[in-house]
């Protein structure tokens, strides 16, 4: 790897260990084995580097969640409730290992009112993430049915955020795939 990649990997480690606000340029340099001048040369600023590192971490989580939703490449169940349950069982199983990423995402959300560049940097990846969730979780191809993928992705993203926040706060009472599926059945009037 070159300095640019080393910086990105170092920044990702720092974000997961220290958080967004507490990560300094010196922390990134120490974690990456590079030098301070490399940050400016490759990314323009520490903030730009941290934004790229944050986006890379969330994209990695999305890739893992999409793979979980697709159950490692096997076909999703045809029954929508079984499919919903299978996807959320996999996503929730990843709650523990993905805790640092969700903790970081929660911190970043609290910063966007004061950091317009950060807000702008995450808008498009968030939109793409929704479409990725629609495809990975539900098998909806965004190119074949963009509107269906958009609204399904909005719902998946809202559920994922809510579920993961509950797992951050209280894993003992956070929803399981069984809970979510039962709740969906109640909502849809199919609980009998």
TrEMBL record:
The Swiss-Prot or TrEMBL record marks DNA binding at: 24-43
> What InterPro entries does the entry give?
Homeodomain-like_sf (IPR009057), HTH-type_TetR-like_transc_reg (IPR050109), HTH_TetR (IPR001647)
What PROSITE patterns does this protein map onto? HTH_TETR_2
Keyword DNA-binding on entry: yes
Pfam families referenced in this protein's UniProt entry, alphabetically: TetR_N
Occurrences of domain HTH tetR-type (ranges):
1-61
Q: Which UniProt keywords apply?
A: DNA-binding
Which residue ranges traverse the bilayer? none
Keyword DNA-binding on entry: yes
| PANTHER family registered for this protein in UniProt | HTH-TYPE TRANSCRIPTIONAL REGULATOR RUTR, TRANSCRIPTIONAL REGULATORY PROTEIN
The name this protein goes by in its record: TetR/AcrR family transcriptional regulator
């Amino acid at each position: 790897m070159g300095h640019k990649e080393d910086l990105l990997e170092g920044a990702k480690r720092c974000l997961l260990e220290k958080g967004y606000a507490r990560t300094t340029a010196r922390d990134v340099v120490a974690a990456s084995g590079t030098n301070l001048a490399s940050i400016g040369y490759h990314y323009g600023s520490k903030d730009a580097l941290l934004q790229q590192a944050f986006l890379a971490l969330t994209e990695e989580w999305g890739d893992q969640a999409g793979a979980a939703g697709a159950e490692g490449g096997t076909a999703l169940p045809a029954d929508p409730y079984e499919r919903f349950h299978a996807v959320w069982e996999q996503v929730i199983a990843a709650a523990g290992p993905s805790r640092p990423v969700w903790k970081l995402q929660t911190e970043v959300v609290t910063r966007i009112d004061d950091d317009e560049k950060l807000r702008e940097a995450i808008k498009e990846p968030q939109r793409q993430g929704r479409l990725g969730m629609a495809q990975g979780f539900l098998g909806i191809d965004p190119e074949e049915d963009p509107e269906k993928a958009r609204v399904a992705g909005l719902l998946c993203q809202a559920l994922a955020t809510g579920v993961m926040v509950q797992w951050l706060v209280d894993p003992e009472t956070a929803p399981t795939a069984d809970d979510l599926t039962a709740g969906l059945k109640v909502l849809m009037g199919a609980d009998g």
